[in-house]
UniProtKB/TrEMBL annotation:
Species of origin: Pseudo-nitzschia multistriata
UniProt cross-references to InterPro entries, sorted A to Z: FAD/NAD-bd_sf, FMO-like
SUPFAM superfamilies, alphabetized: FAD/NAD(P)-binding domain
A molecular function GO annotation: oxidoreductase activity
Region span, Disordered: 88-112, 725-744
Keywords assigned: FAD, Flavoprotein, Oxidoreductase
Protein's name according to its UniProt entry: FAD/NAD(P)-binding domain-containing protein
Amino acid sequence: MNSIAADPPNIGVIGCGPAGMFFLRQLEKERERLLDLKKKIAESEPVRKGEGSDNGYEYDADTIDQRLFSLPIVTVFEKEGRCGGLWQSKLSSPETNGEESSGVAWSQTKGASRKKTNANGIYDGMWINAPKEIFEFEDYTFDEHFGKPMPSFLTRSQVLGYLEGATDDVIDMYTNINSTIRKSLDDNSSALGTILFNTEVSWIEYSKTDEYFWVETVPTGSIPNASTQEYDPKIVTGHKFDKIIFATGTENLPNMPQREVRLLTGADADNGAAIFDKPILHSSEVKSLGADITGKRFLFIGAAYSAEDLALSFLKRGADHVYVTARRDDAYPVTYTPHWPMDKVTVLMRNEIKEVLPGNRLRMGRMDLPSPVIEDIAKRFYNASHDDFVLEGIDAVIFCTGYTINENMLPNNLRGYKTYGGVEYNTELETKVDKDDWPNIYDTELYGSEIPSETFQNSCGTSVDDHSTVVRADPTGHCLYQIEGAHNHHLINNPGFFYHHAEFETPLLDLDIHSAYILKVILGDIPSPDTMEEMFRQRSLETAEAIRHSQLVRFLYDPVYHEATILKSYEGKLNERSYPSAYQFFKLFSKARRAGHPAGNMIVEKNANATTMKGGTTDAIPSCYDLRAIKFTEDDYHQNDDSNQRAASSSPSTAATTWVFSERGLVFLKQFLDSMEAHWEMQPGTNMTFRDFRFDSYQSVYTGTKPRRFSKLWLEVDDLVGDEGDFHDRTTSTGNNKGRIRRNHDCPTCDTDARSEL
């Protein structure tokens, strides 16, 4: 065997929710692939170059041994007693979030950052809002898991069961030292590592001098000293790591907007002022209401997915009425839903609580109209029916305002570039990169005069009056769900610290792809630039392309385009059915291809002179979502190779190579779009919901299996159990378990556990 230059990296993974589970899954898939190749070589079977991977290695026994040895040793810290993260049923005390909230969480000091938080989770009766077909794994299908067709929409516990089914053998390997699979590994494979349950990470820091991360942990439930916020040293355990994967997700702390909380509780009012003395909850706390829903009236703050799901769930449980406040007219999905079952949901567009009146009455009023104000729009906007009015008989206010990331255990230099304390991202650079050096997305010499974005269908942004003259592409990557100041998922100022979280609208598939991608970065298969300056340059180019190709990102970055879009929406001149999803999915699938993930086959190479793509036609996709007009290069998927920017890239020119959605990718995208359109197709005078529509539109892109229709209307289906036809004893599964890590393991009882929780 050839000499090995260094020990395998020792990695600490913070959190064993889906992100942590999927990283272990991808790591063990790579180990399994290498062991299979080694077996082929030992049996004198031919092994083609790069088999099972895009890395192009020429495999021999020594190469595989070195590769096996280079696989990281992983320790996962999980504060709960089992895996699953938010998909487990937990409750928490929400954190307030606002300008006047305590500065403890943002302090630079070690002790103050240890602000105590409690575990939380998705409410028990939650259903997924998108069809299961858009997060299915190719190597662990729903047919394999359930053994029969299932409805497209699943309960929380069913999704948790699927996640556990996709990773059960891997989790067993890391938690059971006597695991049959663990014992079957070759002696020259690297040590696996472990999962430490009921272990809470209290502090992480990096030593530049010694080049390692120091992680301190305490038993879950430990309480720090009230005055110092320090834990008793006797219960603190220290750990050293070469790299950290921060896999806690972005939805750890329930977000409670400070303005509304203080208004409802009278925190800023004079003594004697009215307060709302009924329950004020976050959506993760609704279990505390128990069965006390029937005949009650509720006000929801926020109009995103949790508001929609809870509103429908409350109607199912007999609520008298639900009012939903939306800060924006384009708050998806609530404001896109024209009709609700039994007409028991009222959506208050651009409305907010103005005052608490005696008797738990709430005076509601319109938010300010963005300028410039056009008279005819203002008349519609300030319709008399939406003037200040009073809500009476509200039995609880529920904040459907999402979550925030918990970074309390991190010092500022591991929190990305969020300018805490006024520290700017580029203070770490040897050569300061000025804002004027960032590319202008409207630079015609760099990009040409054409804007290849999804906004074409709306004719908004194509006029010089509809967009700014200069919009600089911020290299911190502050767009959509990205972590600022990160490149290849690691911090630019500390390439050993990885943020592992979902960035797209299919979070579970997204996390699995990102897990494969992060592993490839750690193994060196996907290189990062050597300097921070070059990483910032590449991030800026990526951001520029995202702004140009994505209507939503451009909406966030360009204030003139933002206003033009809003005004056209008020005037009824905007196609509200257009949704900026095609580019983000293309980007996700391109990342999958680079990482060797199966979802990479959602896109295919297309010759520059070809008129049709490999793998099928584009008949399945509406023309407004067809990205064939946008050319993407092989090595730099975010680059638009018909622009001059290509010449400035350090990547080899591949102008003749473009990538387009494959037939499978088009089916995937079409299903996503159909699931969105189902929301605005709800009809008056019916008790149907979006989960009862378009079931014929969905199918597995891997097996072709069509979902079955609910046996009754979704409003009649139990939230915890699901449709009565859903129960499935996994001991009768006929699946081939091809996605499992089952080396030398044929235990007949492996599938008899109750982890599917159906």
